[in-house]
Amino acid sequence: MGSTVSTQVQKRKALSTEKKVLCDLNQSSGCDFPGCDYCPPDRKAWMAGLGAEKLHINKIVWPGTHDSATNKIGIPFVSRPFAQCQSLSIYRQLVLGTRVLDVRVQEDRKICHGILVTYGIDVVIQDIKKFLSETEKEIVILEIRTEFGHQDPPDFDKYLVDQLGEFLIHQDDHVFGKTVEELLPRRIICIWKPRKSPHPKAGDPLWSAVYLTDNWIDTDLPSTKFDSNMKHLSEQPPALSRNYFYRVENTVTPKADNPILCVKPVTGRIHGYSRLFISQCFAKGCVDRLQVLSTDFIDKDFVDACVGLTHARIEGKA
């Protein structure tokens, strides 16, 4: 019992220290950067608003969501707080400005987060199609993976192509250097990450796992995650010279040995520092590597930060 108490005391001290580190950095360095004051007039159609004819895929800072389809996962007030990473539906996220979706499935095509389950993948597909029908020049990156510990849904690649075929941008390295306008009327880059099934190949309607990578670490300590994100981002080639998407996740994760296990208060430790992260990318000379930035419980400010930096890039200010 004594060692358990001592361990918890040390954890609380470490957490308190890490919170202070980010708070102090925010106060001393600020979170201003080129484009930080830009607010898109229409978040639902912000790509069109920036000019699809001059917006290159590899210049976009893509606002993404982590565990995107968990708004109704589990049982409300019982198991949901332990697995819910977004409060908005897929459709509402897209309307808000989200352009990268992270969806986890199990063998029966239902969305899951660990052992908890929610609605089927059809709900996600319907929401995406609804959004695309209401916009004209928005590109969406849809990452679908089989959740760890689960089996691939049978023939899932065929299902995705059947459901999304008319919108799919086929796997092609040349896509990264093209503008949004050049890719239209196709609107979805769908990255399928099975655990055991064959992976998509060059020219296929779906994209393979190597086209969206990250360096996710399992921690509930915000400064540790912030520093890890910065380190791994700085090790990437500039976005203009690589043919894959690199994601930074502005999230931290509840740990089983910590008294606080609900997602929202834990991830809230880092949630408000997305603008600080961007400003520090400028300070450390690696902002040209930033491409996909994802978060839990996405909000307008997060979207505006990503769109603002994108606007600065196409204006030649970043």
Automatic annotation (TrEMBL):
<dbReference type="InterPro" id="IPR000909">
    <property type="entry name" value="PLipase_C_PInositol-sp_X_dom"/>
</dbReference>
<dbReference type="GO" id="GO:0006629">
    <property type="term" value="P:lipid metabolic process"/>
</dbReference>
<feature type="domain" description="Phosphatidylinositol-specific phospholipase C X">
    <location>
        <begin position="51"/>
        <end position="193"/>
    </location>
</feature>
<dbReference type="InterPro" id="IPR051057">
    <property type="entry name" value="PI-PLC_domain"/>
</dbReference>
<dbReference type="GO" id="GO:0008081">
    <property type="term" value="F:phosphoric diester hydrolase activity"/>
</dbReference>
<dbReference type="InterPro" id="IPR017946">
    <property type="entry name" value="PLC-like_Pdiesterase_TIM-brl"/>
</dbReference>
<protein>
    <submittedName>
        <fullName>Uncharacterized protein LOC115741974</fullName>
    </submittedName>
</protein>
<dbReference type="Pfam" id="PF00388">
    <property type="entry name" value="PI-PLC-X"/>
</dbReference>
